[in-house]
Design goal:
- The complex is a heterodimer of chains A (237) and B (239).
- Chain A has nine helices and no strands.
- With 237 residues, chain A is mainly α.
- Chain A has one domain: MetI-like fold.
- In chain A, helix 2 crosses helix 5 and helix 7 runs antiparallel to helix 9.
- Chain B has eleven helices and no strands.
- The longest helix of chain B is centred in the middle third of the chain and has 31 residues.
- Chain B has 239 residues and is mainly α.
- Classes of the chains: A mainly alpha (237), B mainly alpha (239).
């Protein structure tokens, strides 16, 4: 046990600081991905509610494909496909050799694109939970569409979406571990590095697992607080 | 489009399908047995059993599957006790480690689905069965299982699809299933887009077949619900 404390501590031989930094990177990349997913999700929800046939089919396909294909494949596509495009672009300008895309960007976009597919469904469900009468009333007093969205739809849909968004956030947090395969030094990658150089994989992976558990528990509590706060004006019976 | 390359890639990728299916099938089957056990533990009156199952589900749903795979594959081998035990011939094989991690992971998610199914059976029915003098196991078999299964099936279908998708992570510990082969081809040819399209098509086809099978099963099990739209649930939180 004392060995473990020294290994994961903040002393000269300890990995504590590196692991904490890596956990911060995990939060950063997950949050970036989640934010990107929110934007994409809003677009998808709009497409599936208001769009014409072609737009609807496109949004439908996006959702089905991203929810059915392994996340790992999407990360490979963005990282290697992006690098492939970047390399050939660089060759056009006379550079040589391999140009890799930034693994943070590729990973955040990949997880964000997947998250967007889930968030689209959640926003769509939340929109349908708004009472139709409210939309009709707003239209009948002559609200322009943008105002209607800002004052009537967005505040209520967001409120209904919070529990679902909490689930999707947990998903993004856990999927961010997969970005380690393209070399971003987030929590799992740091644990792998530590395991490799100390030959104590169990200690490192169990620590990583505990940190993930901590992150998901605390963010879960935050979402619960947010839900309670947002729902305080809603009658439940 | 380079058709010969795509055909060649598809051929190579299809060779990985049996392993993908094997991983998915065995882990789901073993996970289902374990999940029923966990669900019964959660519902039992014994507080110790309840808390044990609760913490298990909490830990396995709160950590990434990839961490669980690494912990089993790299972490367990660190202990001489395990290296000298009868388990070592299994635990040193990436195949068994992946299967174990997938099983433990899906058991945690499925147990909550099964618990929801069991709880959905109205208590009046159980009371009535008791009043008729049915034994506990008979009540479980005749009253709870047939009705709970129908409720749990859509969510369980989602879980099956998610598991099929999750088998891709086995490629990280060197298993050559579809994603493993895909990443090998990508790193050899650097043609990520074509390979991605081929592998993606294979996964979509598999998932389509699974969701059709589940829908069919749902129709068979719940003839009274025909016409209702199957599989319209909220997305499940994944690993």
């Amino acid at each position: 046990m004392a060995d473990y404390v020294e290994l994961m501590g903040f002393g000269p031989k300890g990995w504590g600081l590196l692991m904490a930094q890596a956990a911060l990177m995990t939060i950063l990349v997950s949050a970036t991905a989640f934010a990107l997913g929110s934007v994409l999700g809003a677009v998808v929800a709009w497409a599936r509610i208001e769009g014409n046939r072609a737009v609807r089919v496109a949004a439908d396909t996006y959702t089905t494909v991203l929810r059915g294909i392994p996340d790992l494949l999407v990360i490979y596509l963005l990282y290697f496909g992006g690098s492939q495009a970047l390399t050939s672009a660089a060759h056009l300008f006379g550079a040589s050799g391999f140009v890799g895309v930034n693994s943070f960007a590729a990973g955040a976009i990949a997880v964000g694109v997947i998250s967007g597919a889930y968030q689209g469904e959640i926003f769509r469900g939340a929109f349908h939970a708004i009472a139709r009468g409210e939309l009709e009333a707003a239209r009948s007093v002559g609200m322009p569409r943008l105002l209607l969205f800002r004052r009537i739809i967005a505040p209520q849909a967001l409120r209904f979406a919070i529990p679902g968004l909490g689930n999707v956030w947990q998903l993004a947090l856990k999927e961010s571990a997969l970005i380690s395969v393209v070399g971003l030094t987030e929590l799992l990658r740091q644990a792998q590095v530590g395991a490799g150089s100390t030959r104590q994989p169990f200690e490192f992976f169990i620590t990583a697992a505990a940190l993930y558990l901590l992150l998901s528990t605390f963010s879960g509590m935050a979402f619960q607080r947010a839900e309670a706060l947002a729902m305080r004006g809603v009658r439940r019976t | 489009m380079d058709t010969p390359f795509i055909v060649e890639t598809l051929k190579l990728l299809l060779a990985g399908v049996p392993l993908t299916l094997k991983l998915a099938f065995y882990s789901i089957a073993a996970g289902a047995v374990f999940a029923v056990l966990l669900a019964l533990m959660r519902l039992s009156r014994n507080r110790a059993l309840d808390y044990a199952a609760r913490s298990y589900v909490f830990v396995f749903r709160g950590t990434p599957l990839l961490v669980q795979i690494f912990l089993i594959y790299y972490g367990l081998g660190q202990f001489p006790e395990i290296r000298q035990s009868f388990l070592w011939p299994f635990l040193r094989e990436p195949y068994w480690c992946a299967l174990l991690a997938l099983t433990l992971n899906t058991a945690a998610y499925s147990s909550e689905i099964i618990r929801g199914g069991i709880l959905s059976v109205p208590f009046g029915q159980i009371e009535a069965a008791r009043a008729c003098g049915m034994s506990r196991s008979l009540i479980f078999r005749r009253i709870i299982v047939p009705q709970g299964l129908i409720v749990a099936l859509p969510a369980y279908g989602n879980e099956i699809i998610l598991m099929t998708r999750s088998t891709a992570l086995a490629s990280v510990i060197t298993l050559m299933e579809v994603t493993g082969i895909a990443s090998k081809i990508i790193s050899e040819t650097f043609r990520a887009v074509e390979v991605f399209v081929c592998a993606g098509a294979i996964y979509l086809l598999l998932n389509f077949a699974i969701s059709r099978a589940i829908a069919l099963l749902e129709r068979r099990l719940a003839p009274q619900r025909r016409g209702a739209k199957p599989g319209t649930g909220v997305p499940e939180p994944a690993r």
